[in-house]
Write a structure and sequence with these properties.
- Strands 1-2-4-5-3 form a 5-stranded mixed β-sheet.
- The protein has one domain (about 1-175).
- Helices cover about 45% and strands about 10% of the residues.
- The protein has helices at about 1-15, 25-45, 45-85, 90-100, 170-175; strands at about 120, 130-135, 145-150, 155-160, 165-170.
- With about 190 residues, it is an alpha+beta fold.
Length: about 190
């Protein structure tokens, strides 16, 4: 079906990037194309297909946000390797200033739903950090959440010290047919 081909191409572009428009421009274009497909499906009366498309879009946003958080975690871990502590900042924009360009070339500051990522440092030596997203509903419930969840209905995403501590189960965000969620869930933590 035309829709599946478009979704595959969109996924490839999101994962591997493309020459030409920026990542943000591509995301905006992709969102518009998917919204257009959903609207067309609804107009044709095939609501089941439209619902599948909406679910795919939500899965895609969770995968994108998980990947962005993983990228940020890697930069924070590199910073910690050099400084023996997590960046001591209170705002996510300050975290970007601490990491770019030495630890990461460009750093995402918003999740796939357009909300700012959240950051917190704790611990006696300020060596425990958290990165979070409010998920699809944009309402962040706090950094104390732990575990895996099976439905993507507004749940938050939380990572700490190289590990996702509150995130969807892998099977929930798998791409149709490939059985993979875009790589491992754990980032190796180097001790000082």
């Amino acid at each position: 079906m035309k829709f599946k081909a478009i979704v595959w191409v969109i996924g490839f572009i999101i994962v591997f990037g493309a020459c030409g428009p920026s990542k943000e421009e591509m995301k905006k274009e992709i969102k518009e194309e998917i919204k257009k497909e959903i609207k067309e499906e609804m107009e044709r009366g095939t609501v089941g297909e439209a619902q599948k498309a909406a679910e795919y879009l939500n899965k895609s946003k969770y995968r994108t946000s998980l990947g962005d958080i993983k990228t940020i975690m890697m930069a924070v871990e590199d910073y910690m390797t050099d400084n023996y502590t997590a960046p001591k900042v209170t705002a996510f924009s300050d975290l970007k200033n601490a990491l770019v360009p030495f630890y990461i070339k460009t750093m995402p500051v918003k999740d796939a739903w357009g909300k700012d990522f959240l950051y917190k440092v704790t611990g006696e030596k300020e060596d425990i950090y958290f990165i979070g997203s409010g998920g699809s509903d944009g309402i962040f419930e706090g950094f104390n959440q732990k575990g895996k969840y099976g439905e993507l209905r507004g749940q938050d995403i939380i990572a700490s010290c190289g590990v996702f501590v509150y995130a969807p189960e892998k099977k929930v965000i798998e791409r149709d047919g490939d059985g993979a969620a875009g790589g491992g869930w754990r980032i190796p933590r180097l001790s000082p």
